[in-house]
């Protein structure tokens, strides 16, 4: 059974409708309207652009960690210390994992706040609609944030090294896997 509170319009929605009514009809401010798709179009476009931007940020950070691993590994292999060269794998994997963890935790909080801001910007009519839209945005952003490194490891890592006879080299002397 639905609650009366769920079907009642949110205060933010009513404010936006009142602002629209005042702009449109200054003679009869008591006439209440509703927000149309055209009224919400700027919010929807902002939502799409921001969601794609945030997903792009996640991919860029994963790519940055990959570049960090490659450059750190190459730099440590060039070290004159035999101890440093013998622990390159452990050092690079550990630091990259820690960087990945910290970035995921930070972006998790940022994406939660961005999802809430985008949902408020949309001005959903009821509390139920607000919660549904917030959950959807939060899920998408946090899913991409948490699983992009795993998807990279599962499907792309190891495939970017080339094939026998045509390996890809970094700094002209180190194979991608090295």
UniProtKB/TrEMBL annotation:
Which domain of life, per UniProt? Eukaryota
TM segments?
Answer: 48-70, 90-114, 134-156
Write the record's keywords in alphabetical order, separated by commas. Membrane, Transmembrane, Transmembrane helix
> How is this protein positioned relative to the membrane?
Multi-pass membrane protein
Q: Which Pfam families match?
A: Anoctamin
Per UniProt, residues of the Anoctamin transmembrane domain are 7-178
Subcellular localization(s) per the UniProt record = Membrane
Chief localisation class: membrane
Q: Which InterPro entries match?
A: Anoctamin (IPR007632), Anoctamin_TM (IPR049452)
Entry's family note: Belongs to the anoctamin family.
Q: What is this protein called?
A: Anoctamin
- Look up and give the organism this protein is from: Characodon lateralis
